[in-house]
Amino acid sequence: MKYIVGNWKSNQNLTQSFLWLDDLIALKPKITPDKKVILCLPFTDIATFNQKLNESGLPIEVAAQNVSHMAPGKHTGEINAQMLSELVSYCIVGHHERRADFAETSDVVATKASFLLENSITPIICLDKPYLDQQIKSLFTQGVEVSKCIFVYEPASAIGTGNSIDPKDANHVAHQISFLTDYLSPVLYGGSVSPDNIKSYMDEPNISGVLVGTDSLNPTLFADIINAT
Ligand code: 13P
Question: pLDDT tens-digit profile of 40-93?
């Protein structure tokens, strides 16, 4: 199975998301059964976008980009895993931007992953070199079943810069992540993935897919990435 995961980050209101979907439907991307296409949307788009997606018949799954590290209760503004469980089967945690901009620690990321798994949602856990070992250690310490997670190697230098890293280097780190997680989970690469470089990552033996930011916002480029996989 090859994973193509789009991450819209804090972009696209519902109106814009509908226009995006109309364009993607018209492009007829080739989503064969060996490809799993997942779109991580802002919370505000998830439910309504999913209805429209189901009507279209496109085999794409919607997902979330974040989840609360707290159980249901008195936590104003928080969206917890139980709420998400009626809407999505996947959720990103530990993205570099959340670690950098919201001071999320590896322990908090592991707690989020635990809540997601308790609610039958697969965590898509983003990792980078400075916290690779520490992050994976936190997962084991908190009893997270790593075999039920998807991992992504996302080097900070490649995120949103156009400076994708050498596929061989990405493959090397992906292997390191597989080794540390007992070879039980898919490992993806993220960072300036485009239609031009997608194949070079997919050809690497330890990389099972990609996490795409900027180019997932453009339906033509996202369709090209799906078709080139
Ligand atoms: P870019 O594809 O824009 O580099 O973003 C990568 C990313 O952060 C996906 O989560």
Answer: 999 999 999 999 999 999 999 999 999 999 999 999 999 999 999 999 999 999
Contact between 182 and 148 (Cβ < 8 Å): no
Looking up tokens 């996947």, which residue turns up?
Answer: 90
Phi and psi, residue 209, nearest 5°: 160, -170
What is the rounded distance in angstroms from the CA atom of residue 52 to the CA atom of residue 9? Answer: 20
Domains and CATH numbers, the chain: 2-228 (3.20.20.70)
Q: Is 160 in the pocket of ligand 1 (CB under 6 A)?
A: yes
- Read off the pTM: 0.98
Q: What is the pLDDT of residue 160?
A: 97
CA separation for the pair 196, 78 (Å, rounded): 38
216 Cβ below 6 A of ligand 1: no
The CA-CA-CA angle for residues 200, 40, 158, to 5°, reads: 40
User: Scanning the structure block, which residue is given the tokens 């980009």?
Assistant: 65
